[in-house]
Amino acid sequence: MELHMTDLSPFHITRKWPAQHPERLQLYSLPTPNGVKASIMLEEIGLPYEPHLVDFASDDQFSPEFLSLAPNNKIPAILDPDGPNGHPLALFESGAILIYLAEKTGKLLPQDAAARYETIQWLMWQMGGLGPMFGQLGFFHKFAGAEYEDKRPRDRYVAESARLLGVLDQRLQGRDWIMGEYSIADIAVLPWVRCLVDFYKAGDLVQFERFANVRRVLDAFLARPAVQRGLTIPARD
Prior knowledge:
Glutathione S-transferase Yfyf (Class Pi), Chain A, domain 2, about 240 residues, Glutaredoxin, GST-like protein, alpha+beta, Thioredoxin-like_sf, 10 helices, Glutathione_S-Trfase_N, about 50% helix
């Protein structure tokens, strides 16, 4: 029997996070660099949604309900009651979510095939390089790894993070955004740059002042009202 598009009861995740507005897209997330990709995107495109906080302090990400939607126990994840062909769609992985939302709304992903693939290229660059390398640097500089006496692991990630910033800085030379026009590539990359500098406090380590183009575009990104809203969603209690 076909489900009504607003009937989300078959999805186990709604038992822990009940949908007050089941007709809206459901977001399960936390304001981390990966998490805010989804909330910023949703704020930018103006698609109605209902956010739910996945609290790492309570190990929500390991709960059976969350794992039923996101088996890799990582945020963000979404449940769209109005998915392809009108059927609900559950989706995890921030990059996949960005592409899905862009294609669903026709926003922030070029329609031209060549530009579309180039945008996705930079999205994959963030997911495969920038995010993991910055995250490792954060571990060895700010978290438990900071206690390690051997600084070679930290220095390895410092060097690689600086190299990646150099790649990004060169790309932004003469451009307002990664693709010239604002896109999902910026939404993927720039929250991680912000995290490296503001949260991990690693700006001095990577000599961030050298990357003037990155600083310029990061400032423009953080000035966007949708970004400012998205950086705080879901709200922490």
